[in-house]
Amino acid sequence: MQLSKRIIKYLIFINIISILFSMPVLSNNYLDLGNFESMNGGYWALEGDNTTVIQVDKIDNERFYLTQENIINKVITGKIKVSSFTYDNDAFGLTVGYQGINNNYLWSWDAGGMHGTEGHIFYKKEGPVNHDDIPGELLYDGRAVGEAWKKEKEYNFKVTYLENYFELEINNRKIIEVKDDFPKGRFGFYCFSQDMIYFSNITIQNGEHLLKPELEELDQPIEIKGGVNKSDNNLFDIINADYRITNNSEYDIENLYISLAIDPDLKLVADSINITQTSYDLKYDTENNNYKLSGISLKSKESINLNYFLKKRQIQFIKDKYFNTISIKSSNKNILLSNFIKTKLKFNNANNNLNSVIIGSINVNKNSSYFNVNNSGQKFKILTSDGRLIQVDKNGRFHLTVNKFNGIYDEEILVLKLIVPKRYNKYSLSGEKIKLLKVKPGSYIKQDFNLYTGGKLNG
Description:
Layout (H helix, E strand, L loop, with lengths): L2 H20 L14 E3 L4 E3 L5 E4 L6 E5 L7 E9 L8 E10 L2 E9 L6 E8 L10 E8 L11 E8 L2 E6 L2 E6 L7 E7 L4 E10 L15 E7 L9 E10 L5 E9 L4 E10 L5 E5 L4 E9 L4 E10 L8 E10 L10 E6 L9 E9 L16 E4 L4 E3 L5 E6 L9 E8 L7 E4 L3 E6 L4 E3 L2 E8 L3
Parallel strand pairs: 24-31, 24-32
Antiparallel strand pairs: 1-4, 2-3, 3-14, 4-13, 5-10, 5-14, 6-7, 6-13, 7-8, 8-9, 10-11, 11-12, 15-16, 16-21, 17-20, 17-22, 18-21, 19-20, 22-23, 24-27, 25-26, 25-28, 28-30, 29-32
């Protein structure tokens, strides 16, 4: 061995010794890593109380450090850190379902030394690790610029290893999620051509409660609360429905749809639907007057709000009762997963007002999400010709009720004037800020204000 290499090995040894003796004694709740078994060589140095192990060998061959027992349906946590004393940038990671050195599942994290790309991969290992290709079936590819590990940065990891699911989190960020059938096998640490890696504070806990049962086995995991806004019960034509939908189960549930069975004499105003969900699909069944909002997913304990307006199809006729229902079902098997809310609407004909509703939004550069960045508390407002000041919410939406009609054939001219917040005074805003509307009893009007920003005034 050359003298320079001997000096480097000696310095590494001295550095490890100094680190080991300077580390505090950790909690006995962590696994005793002295019970792990080295596989395929490598030098695994245990810290004093056996809650930390350090791999100090660098060679182009995979190294494993494994539990003696096979595990499945477990949640595994711990810490990983690469010492700045190393000069290399290759791969390390974790293995689960280990049956043999060429029969296991491997998460490998590279800093650019292997395959020419930094980042994460997860695969079914079926051959020896090398620099040229991935020896097995690739199940996740997260290689990208900026995804390399960094020296001296401590990473907290959490592995959820179930018989039908694998998930890896790094510092509370979900990195990998794979749904597949996984075997019972050994768990352990992995290195390839990389030294000075610390694995520490390992816990293995039961994860059987995370196994998702069949949907048929869940007893109404989703709860619906709400209904028709009671203050709107005297409206002749427009009805406001407001619901809160909550997944009370401990499981994330995907591929859901909301079923709205509307009274045949009522119609859902599609433009009025407001739901705290990034996207959804709306389909209408004409024969049954049923609306289906699909593409819904709910994480465990997550709640979403649903709001919409209903209007009468024929305003000259009034029934004593209108029946509407809402429920949540699975898109895969049409299984009812929620309580079934049936709303009965009653109208007192003697006290009915002939009302109309105006709904709209304020769009700046045709981007209503622009309002989400308004942290100043200043909001757009609308002044009506009958003296009302209408507030616009942070998403740019507004609505108002017109209810001063004397009869079913009456008509009112209403002017809406947009009031722009002071913070926009330094910009030139183009677009109509005044709208003139003809409003009839029982009508629904969709009216938006579309504005465009120009350059700053005075330069």
